Write the structure tokens for this entry.
Amino acid sequence: MSTIDLGSAAALDHARYAVTLSSGKRLVVFRLPRISLGPSDPALPAASDQAAQGDVWSYYAMEAECPHAGGPMTEAHIDIEDSAYVASCPWHAYDFNIETGESSYGVKACTFPVEITKGQVILKIANNPGLTLSKIEPVSEKIKFKHGSRIDATAPPNYLDDKATLSDWCVHILNTTDPELKIELTTHLFSIFATREQTANPMDLGAGKIQPPDEPPRQNSINQVAPSKMPRAGRGGSVRSRIAMIHALANIEQWAIDLAIDICVRFATFETLASPSLPLPRTFYYDWLKVANDEAKHFSLLRARLEELGSSFGALPVHHGLWESAVRTSHDLRARISVIALVHEARGLDVNPLTIEKFRKANDLESVEVLDIIHNDEITHVTTGHRWLSWICEQEGTDPVTVFRENVQEHFRGAVKGPFNVEARAQAGMGTMYYEDLTGQPWSGDMIAGG
């Protein structure tokens, strides 16, 4: 038995960590809200340890590579099923109970117990004595909130009360114009929704009781122009060019927050066309709130990088091209997922490596780090879209490739052009049959990438 001290619980404040042991073995350690059945739950830690942690958290460790095909479990999607956390591989969505390693696919991942002892996070590896910690690195999950006063310092976050429904929260966030408040409210909503999900008081969906805005408002100080009127950012060789590129990406990420929030409220009454019809399972809402949380993180990282380069968000014009696609698909969830998640966001997988290389050539390694985080997260977002379109099609007895292509041909403007990042798209579940030789309605502008 090897007993390995990973550090103090107070210092380990990320949601996940990549751990390398002295043998070269790599693990991922998750820090997640404790699933409690109530005050008498014997799984709760001692009061002294709770005080040391500040909050009540559970820690889990599993092998870093998916036993199916080696996918990176550091980028796993986390769900709650049957009062247990489940990690889904971002490549092929193989699911694993992160405590037992068991999977619905019949394979099993290696998991390892983690305990809190006197405020320290202790990892235990059975039948392998003498192992030590070689390296522990956080996998970015942090939000970079704006330091100093906000644009409107008189308007702190307006948190809704415990009776607010998910739809109430979503509309509240969509109508929030200050991007800093939008970040805070989005991350807060994801946290409380996930925490309440396996308690006796999960959040009411509020389906159909409140309508989202036709278009989320923006601050009056933001100069919105048509996508075709946006100035060219250049090739990233100058600071000015890189600021323009980061600013454009930050704008896309802000709209992406709204798109992920909007899908939760706009389609809350969705039912499949199967007989009998089925509503969306609650994991649908968890998945898209996780996407929204990631997009808030992305916006915060890009906004912070703009400030580090001497600029700020809003210093340049922005467009709302992504929302135009949202309007065209507001009538049908299948169309929304097809166009937003599996065209726009999948296009981001194609162009992200090219953008990252421009920043690398300029030796802007701080921006490269941010863009790498965004790219890896966006693979999981395309996976989420693919997962839920496939789920709907499975219930309705239709082919997801056919449904996707038909919706793109009807509701997307322009051709789905390469070059394609075939590897990243395949990791997200999209084989070439989805996107080769695919064209939507006539359009003379550029495709908007990312989200």
The chain has eleven helices and eleven strands. The mean pLDDT is 86.
